[in-house]
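[Q] Does anyone have a clean C-alpha coordinate version of this?
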Amino acid sequence: MADKPDFENVPIISVKNLTVGYGDEPIIKNVSLEVLSGEVFAIMGRSGCGKTTLFKAIIGLLEPEEGEVFIDGDKVLPITHGGAQPILRKVGVLFQSGALFSSMTLAENVAFPIRQYTTLPESTVGQLVGLKLSEVGLEGYEKLLPRELSGGMQKRAALARAMALDPKILFFDEPSTGLDPLTSRELDQTIVKINQALGTTIVLVTHELESVFRIAARVIMIDGAEKGIIAEGSPEELRDHNGDPRVKDFFNR
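[A] Here you go.
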Protein backbone atom coordinates (compact mmCIF):
# COMPACT_ATOMS: atom_id res chain seq x y z
CA MET A 1 0.00 0.00 0.00
CA ALA A 2 1.24 3.48 -0.85
CA ASP A 3 2.09 6.04 1.80
CA LYS A 4 -0.81 8.04 3.17
CA PRO A 5 -0.99 11.34 1.28
CA ASP A 6 -0.17 14.80 2.56
CA PHE A 7 -3.07 17.21 2.85
CA GLU A 8 -3.60 20.93 3.17
CA ASN A 9 -4.15 22.43 6.61
CA VAL A 10 -7.40 24.02 5.43
CA PRO A 11 -10.85 22.79 6.54
CA ILE A 12 -13.16 21.82 3.71
CA ILE A 13 -15.85 20.52 6.10
CA SER A 14 -16.76 22.27 9.37
CA VAL A 15 -19.33 20.84 11.76
CA LYS A 16 -20.27 23.17 14.62
CA ASN A 17 -22.21 22.07 17.72
CA LEU A 18 -24.35 19.59 15.79
CA THR A 19 -27.25 17.82 17.51
CA VAL A 20 -29.34 15.41 15.45
CA GLY A 21 -31.69 12.56 16.22
CA TYR A 22 -35.02 10.92 15.54
CA GLY A 23 -38.08 12.16 17.40
CA ASP A 24 -37.25 13.53 20.85
CA GLU A 25 -34.12 11.44 21.34
CA PRO A 26 -30.78 12.88 20.14
CA ILE A 27 -28.39 10.36 18.60
CA ILE A 28 -25.55 12.85 18.19
CA LYS A 29 -25.30 15.76 20.64
CA ASN A 30 -23.22 18.94 20.39
CA VAL A 31 -20.61 17.48 18.00
CA SER A 32 -17.97 19.70 16.38
CA LEU A 33 -15.28 18.58 13.94
CA GLU A 34 -13.27 19.65 10.92
CA VAL A 35 -12.11 17.71 7.88
CA LEU A 36 -9.07 19.11 6.11
CA SER A 37 -8.85 19.52 2.36
CA GLY A 38 -7.25 16.49 0.75
CA GLU A 39 -7.17 14.19 3.78
CA VAL A 40 -8.67 10.75 4.31
CA PHE A 41 -10.84 11.10 7.41
CA ALA A 42 -12.61 8.20 9.12
CA ILE A 43 -15.67 8.21 11.38
CA MET A 44 -15.59 5.07 13.50
CA GLY A 45 -17.55 3.44 16.30
CA ARG A 46 -19.57 0.42 17.25
CA SER A 47 -22.74 -0.48 15.38
CA GLY A 48 -25.60 1.82 16.34
CA CYS A 49 -23.35 4.54 17.80
CA GLY A 50 -24.60 7.24 15.41
CA LYS A 51 -21.81 7.48 12.85
CA THR A 52 -24.17 7.08 9.87
CA THR A 53 -26.57 9.58 11.44
CA LEU A 54 -23.70 12.07 11.66
CA PHE A 55 -22.71 11.37 8.04
CA LYS A 56 -26.28 11.94 6.78
CA ALA A 57 -26.58 15.18 8.72
CA ILE A 58 -23.29 16.45 7.29
CA ILE A 59 -24.52 16.10 3.69
CA GLY A 60 -28.02 17.42 4.44
CA LEU A 61 -30.02 14.19 4.35
CA LEU A 62 -31.08 14.70 7.98
CA GLU A 63 -32.18 17.97 9.55
CA PRO A 64 -30.23 18.83 12.72
CA GLU A 65 -31.97 20.03 15.85
CA GLU A 66 -29.09 22.39 16.54
CA GLY A 67 -25.79 23.38 14.97
CA GLU A 68 -24.41 24.10 11.53
CA VAL A 69 -22.43 22.34 8.81
CA PHE A 70 -20.30 24.06 6.16
CA ILE A 71 -18.92 22.29 3.09
CA ASP A 72 -16.36 24.15 0.99
CA GLY A 73 -17.48 27.42 2.58
CA ASP A 74 -21.20 26.93 1.94
CA LYS A 75 -23.72 26.27 4.70
CA VAL A 76 -25.46 22.92 4.32
CA LEU A 77 -29.24 23.18 4.42
CA PRO A 78 -31.28 19.99 4.87
CA ILE A 79 -32.97 18.35 1.91
CA THR A 80 -36.35 19.13 3.49
CA HIS A 81 -35.56 22.81 2.88
CA GLY A 82 -34.35 22.21 -0.66
CA GLY A 83 -30.78 22.74 0.46
CA ALA A 84 -29.06 19.46 -0.29
CA GLN A 85 -28.92 19.64 -4.08
CA PRO A 86 -26.23 22.38 -4.36
CA ILE A 87 -24.10 20.56 -1.80
CA LEU A 88 -24.56 17.17 -3.45
CA ARG A 89 -23.09 18.65 -6.63
CA LYS A 90 -19.86 19.27 -4.68
CA VAL A 91 -19.70 15.80 -3.15
CA GLY A 92 -19.91 12.22 -4.32
CA VAL A 93 -21.55 9.64 -2.09
CA LEU A 94 -21.01 5.88 -2.11
CA PHE A 95 -23.75 4.35 0.01
CA GLN A 96 -23.42 0.99 1.71
CA SER A 97 -25.62 -0.74 -0.88
CA GLY A 98 -23.92 0.91 -3.86
CA ALA A 99 -27.39 1.99 -5.05
CA LEU A 100 -26.77 1.40 -8.76
CA PHE A 101 -29.80 1.49 -11.04
CA SER A 102 -30.37 -2.18 -11.81
CA SER A 103 -32.01 -1.60 -15.20
CA MET A 104 -29.17 0.61 -16.47
CA THR A 105 -25.79 -0.44 -17.85
CA LEU A 106 -22.65 0.74 -16.09
CA ALA A 107 -22.21 3.47 -18.68
CA GLU A 108 -25.79 4.66 -18.17
CA ASN A 109 -25.35 4.64 -14.38
CA VAL A 110 -22.23 6.79 -14.54
CA ALA A 111 -23.76 9.09 -17.17
CA PHE A 112 -26.88 9.71 -15.08
CA PRO A 113 -25.54 12.51 -12.81
CA ILE A 114 -23.64 14.09 -15.72
CA ARG A 115 -26.86 14.34 -17.74
CA GLN A 116 -28.78 15.46 -14.64
CA TYR A 117 -26.53 18.37 -13.70
CA THR A 118 -24.84 19.46 -16.93
CA THR A 119 -25.71 20.28 -20.54
CA LEU A 120 -22.64 18.62 -22.02
CA PRO A 121 -23.02 17.05 -25.49
CA GLU A 122 -23.41 13.27 -25.58
CA SER A 123 -19.99 12.80 -27.12
CA THR A 124 -18.40 14.49 -24.10
CA VAL A 125 -20.63 12.53 -21.70
CA GLY A 126 -19.40 9.32 -23.30
CA GLN A 127 -15.77 10.38 -22.92
CA LEU A 128 -16.29 11.23 -19.24
CA VAL A 129 -18.01 7.91 -18.58
CA GLY A 130 -15.09 6.04 -20.13
CA LEU A 131 -12.60 8.06 -18.07
CA LYS A 132 -14.42 7.46 -14.76
CA LEU A 133 -14.77 3.72 -15.35
CA SER A 134 -11.08 3.57 -16.29
CA GLU A 135 -10.14 5.33 -13.03
CA VAL A 136 -11.74 2.49 -11.04
CA GLY A 137 -10.43 -0.30 -13.29
CA LEU A 138 -13.68 -1.05 -15.13
CA GLU A 139 -12.84 -0.04 -18.69
CA GLY A 140 -14.48 -2.46 -21.11
CA TYR A 141 -17.46 -3.15 -18.83
CA GLU A 142 -19.59 -0.23 -20.03
CA LYS A 143 -22.43 -2.33 -21.48
CA LEU A 144 -22.87 -4.70 -18.54
CA LEU A 145 -25.73 -4.50 -16.04
CA PRO A 146 -24.97 -4.37 -12.29
CA ARG A 147 -26.28 -7.93 -11.76
CA GLU A 148 -23.61 -9.19 -14.16
CA LEU A 149 -20.81 -7.95 -11.88
CA SER A 150 -19.26 -9.19 -8.65
CA GLY A 151 -19.91 -7.30 -5.42
CA GLY A 152 -16.54 -5.60 -5.56
CA MET A 153 -17.04 -4.52 -9.16
CA GLN A 154 -20.45 -3.11 -8.26
CA LYS A 155 -18.83 -1.02 -5.51
CA ARG A 156 -16.24 0.28 -7.95
CA ALA A 157 -18.96 1.09 -10.49
CA ALA A 158 -20.84 3.03 -7.81
CA LEU A 159 -17.60 4.84 -7.03
CA ALA A 160 -17.23 5.79 -10.70
CA ARG A 161 -20.73 7.27 -10.61
CA ALA A 162 -19.95 9.14 -7.37
CA MET A 163 -16.90 10.64 -9.14
CA ALA A 164 -18.81 11.59 -12.29
CA LEU A 165 -18.95 15.33 -11.56
CA ASP A 166 -15.36 15.55 -10.23
CA PRO A 167 -16.42 16.25 -6.64
CA LYS A 168 -14.01 17.79 -4.15
CA ILE A 169 -15.20 15.34 -1.48
CA LEU A 170 -16.14 11.66 -1.59
CA PHE A 171 -18.19 10.13 1.22
CA PHE A 172 -18.15 6.37 1.82
CA ASP A 173 -20.74 4.71 4.06
CA GLU A 174 -19.39 1.30 5.17
CA PRO A 175 -17.80 0.62 1.74
CA SER A 176 -16.45 -2.83 2.69
CA THR A 177 -19.82 -4.28 3.70
CA GLY A 178 -20.39 -7.60 1.92
CA LEU A 179 -16.89 -7.77 0.47
CA ASP A 180 -14.31 -10.48 1.10
CA PRO A 181 -10.95 -9.35 2.55
CA LEU A 182 -9.11 -9.36 -0.78
CA THR A 183 -11.81 -7.35 -2.55
CA SER A 184 -11.96 -4.95 0.40
CA ARG A 185 -8.20 -4.38 0.11
CA GLU A 186 -8.54 -3.72 -3.63
CA LEU A 187 -11.26 -1.13 -2.94
CA ASP A 188 -8.98 0.52 -0.36
CA GLN A 189 -6.22 0.68 -2.97
CA THR A 190 -8.63 2.38 -5.39
CA ILE A 191 -9.60 4.94 -2.72
CA VAL A 192 -5.94 5.75 -2.02
CA LYS A 193 -5.22 6.06 -5.73
CA ILE A 194 -8.04 8.57 -6.17
CA ASN A 195 -6.97 10.57 -3.13
CA GLN A 196 -3.34 10.75 -4.22
CA ALA A 197 -3.91 11.31 -7.93
CA LEU A 198 -6.77 13.81 -7.72
CA GLY A 199 -6.39 15.30 -4.23
CA THR A 200 -9.98 14.36 -3.43
CA THR A 201 -10.98 14.63 0.23
CA ILE A 202 -12.27 11.28 1.51
CA VAL A 203 -14.69 10.84 4.42
CA LEU A 204 -15.09 7.22 5.43
CA VAL A 205 -17.80 5.87 7.77
CA THR A 206 -16.73 2.42 8.90
CA HIS A 207 -15.99 0.01 11.72
CA GLU A 208 -13.38 -1.91 9.68
CA LEU A 209 -10.03 -1.40 11.41
CA GLU A 210 -7.91 -2.90 8.64
CA SER A 211 -9.23 -0.41 6.10
CA VAL A 212 -8.71 2.53 8.43
CA PHE A 213 -5.09 1.60 9.15
CA ARG A 214 -4.45 1.19 5.42
CA ILE A 215 -5.85 4.50 4.24
CA ALA A 216 -6.91 7.01 6.94
CA ALA A 217 -4.77 9.91 8.12
CA ARG A 218 -7.12 10.88 10.95
CA VAL A 219 -9.97 9.21 12.83
CA ILE A 220 -12.73 10.21 15.20
CA MET A 221 -14.47 7.62 17.35
CA ILE A 222 -18.15 8.06 18.18
CA ASP A 223 -19.65 6.53 21.32
CA GLY A 224 -23.38 5.84 21.52
CA ALA A 225 -23.67 6.40 25.26
CA GLU A 226 -21.77 9.70 25.08
CA LYS A 227 -23.67 10.70 21.89
CA GLY A 228 -20.49 12.22 20.57
CA ILE A 229 -16.76 12.05 19.92
CA ILE A 230 -14.63 10.34 22.56
CA ALA A 231 -11.32 10.20 20.66
CA GLU A 232 -9.54 11.86 17.73
CA GLY A 233 -6.14 11.30 16.14
CA SER A 234 -4.29 9.04 13.75
CA PRO A 235 -5.27 5.34 13.83
CA GLU A 236 -1.92 4.54 15.42
CA GLU A 237 -2.40 7.17 18.15
CA LEU A 238 -5.82 5.82 19.06
CA ARG A 239 -4.55 2.25 19.13
CA ASP A 240 -1.32 2.83 21.04
CA HIS A 241 -1.68 5.97 23.14
CA ASN A 242 -5.33 6.60 24.05
CA GLY A 243 -6.12 5.85 27.69
CA ASP A 244 -9.91 5.55 27.35
CA PRO A 245 -10.76 1.85 27.84
CA ARG A 246 -13.58 2.09 25.29
CA VAL A 247 -11.11 3.27 22.66
CA LYS A 248 -8.42 0.77 23.64
CA ASP A 249 -10.88 -2.12 23.49
CA PHE A 250 -12.18 -1.03 20.07
CA PHE A 251 -8.76 -0.53 18.47
CA ASN A 252 -7.17 -3.64 19.99
CA ARG A 253 -10.07 -6.03 19.56
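[Q] Thanks! Anything notable?
[A] The beta strands are 11-22, 25-36, 40-44, 66-71, 74-75, 91-94, 169-173, 201-205, 218-223, 228-233.
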